[in-house]
Design brief:
Arc Repressor Mutant, subunit A, Metal-dependent transcriptional regulator, DtxR_MntR_Metal-Reg, DNA binding, mainly alpha, transcription, Diphtheria Toxin Repressor, domain 2
Length: about 120
């Protein structure tokens, strides 16, 4: 499944907020990502049209199965890559920042090999 980096970041943010607070609204995403509410609202409209999120009458945003799959995959890569980089000796702060960039471009094959290689290290 191919999706742009920005979309992965939005979906991952929605998942993180959902796990943290239980309810996600456009204003929460705007605050977390540092974007304006109109920018978030426009993106959520695109996500609804493409079947990644649903928005109820109260403005609560929920990931669809399709959106959740992408968000979980992105979050898994973020966490695992951060841990791998730290195992290699990268500071925690740098590892988290670099993992955020790498997670969007690494192939599934390479990611799986990284996980396997560093599993017991």
């Amino acid at each position: 499944m191919v999706i742009q980096e920005a979309a992965e970041m939005y979906l991952e943010t929605i998942l993180r907020l959902k796990k943290k607070t239980g309810v996600v609204r456009a204003v929460d995403i705007a605050r977390e990502m540092g974007y304006s509410k109109p920018t978030i609202s426009e993106q959520m409209k695109k996500f609804r049209e493409n079947g990644y999120v649903e928005v109820d009458n109260e403005g609560h945003i929920t990931l669809t199965e399709k959106g959740l799959e992408i968000a979980e995959s992105t979050l898994e890569r973020h966490i695992a890559l951060g841990e791998i980089l730290q195992k290699m000796g990268v500071s925690k702060e740098t590892a988290i920042e670099d993992a955020c960039r790498i997670e969007h471009y690494i192939s599934e094959e390479t990611f799986e090999c990284f996980k396997e290689y560093f599993k017991n290290k």
